[in-house]
Amino acid sequence: MILPNFVIPINSIHKQLSLCKKSSTFLFFSFPIIVLQNSLFFPPMDSTQLHVAIFSSPGMGHLIPVLVLGNQLATHHNIKITILTITTNSSSPEIEFLKKKKNIEIIHVPSVDISHLIDSNTKVLTQLRLMVREALPGIRSVIASMNHHLDALIVDIFGTQILPIAQEFNIPKYVFHTTSAWALALFIYLQVLDQKIEGEYVDLKQPLEIPGCKALQPDDVVDPMMDRSDQQYHEYLKLTIEYTCFDGILINTWEDLEGDTIKALRSNEKLQQGLKVPLPIYPIGPLRRTVEITERDEVIQWLDKQNYESILFVSFGSGGALSSQQMIELAWGLELSQQKFVWVVRPPSDGDPDNAYLKSNGSDTRGTFEYLPEGFLTRTKDMGLVVPMWANQVEILSHSSVGGFMSHCGWNSTVESLTNGVPMIAWPLHAEQKMNAAMLTEELGVAIRPAVLPTKKLVKREEIQGMVRILMDTKEGKSIREKAKKLKISAENALSEGGSSYNSMCELVKDLRTR
Fold this sequence. Notes:
With about 525 residues, this protein is an alpha/beta fold. About 40% of the residues lie in helices and about 15% in strands. It contains 17 helices and 16 strands. The chain has a seven-stranded parallel β-sheet, with helices on both faces. A six-stranded parallel β-sheet has the order 13-12-11-14-15-16, sandwiched between helices. The protein has a three-stranded antiparallel β-sheet with strand order 1-3-2. Strand 14, helix 13 (about 410-420) and strand 15 (about 425) form a beta-alpha-beta unit. It is globular and about 65 Å long. The model is unreliable at about 1-45 (pLDDT under 50). Belongs to the UDP-glycosyltransferase family. Its EC number is 2.4.1.-. It is an enzyme of class 2 (transferase). InterPro entries: UDP_glucos_trans, UDP_glycos_trans_CS.
């Protein structure tokens, strides 16, 4: 019941209390009261408002979609949102990003030390799982101390170990799968593949068959599947088992983009062998950051002066890094292409590109440009803008002068590119990015990519020059751009009232309220 504002004189309360005392009953107020000049004031309280917590594992790539989802639920569905996030030694960009969020509550779970559990060969997925595992007592403490019982708990892909805590407090629980439906289908079917296939997946001569979905080339499998003897593969398998115990799965995609795959996830019996029981699937995307221009920085001011769709934006995400040699080849390729560009440059990483993900990515830009070829900045000063460490990607991709995006194909970046109608040069580095690149090039036709994966072989300057020219200055590039623009419209339709993702989000909220 929703109570209106009302004021009761103090002397009336005294009478009620004396009556209660005589009748051996007690008077309780289950809502806030304020004493105002000898009266009790009862402020308005909406007892129907849901309270949902969303857990984000460490890393900007995980935090961004969680915050966007939280903002969507808070703004459009009047749900109180609490974000739980684990701080790490490299969390300064995350913290700065969180400070800008005013309409949701942010709780930082105390950071944990896993140095005694890892060595130099421990993969990022394993490290993320260990961080969450070690933080479980802190997460439980936060949830237990909340004044309002949670109506639901949503976790990202690496937060599934929180499942027992949700069960302990009898909280409905959902997984937010922040990548594509195709990646989710592979993920769900992995338990079956693990039993059916012997040896390494990457050594297979035939594509991996996923029921009801596009087959996957062995070269494009997600990183955790590349070495079945590594701990991260076994952690990945545990993740697939944990998924089956949730009440529903949210995906940051939309029906028009991945209709066949979404249909398979919902109804293909062979694919659902990986689940204990069929789970509700909610394609609620594309969820992406919105443009929030408060002042036009140097990059935007430079873009304002350029021709329509003439600029190639080059960025490999908050956790992406190239080798020293590849950075030099990329610089020469851009210069030789004679196409204008904005390039976000980060220090190179000459080891496993996976290792750059959890490293500090703060604002220290000293020495960033020393890895570029000698004289590069001088020779390209009229055709390019080189930005150290970080740039506002959402604002740049939405700018009318940007006509292409060379990207690592992280799903956040992919969604931000597609929803702005910007075609891509796919440059996958780690995680599920090779799958994303394959879908963008082979299925959707909105991207081109090197002949050999950049993680397998150095991409030479001549090939880079050719890809840039194809995308930015040929009929083939124009055709690719038109396909990207159609997907932009498709995304807008999905999110508009009555669209597939709009309806799916409403179904999710209805389910939350029912539970």
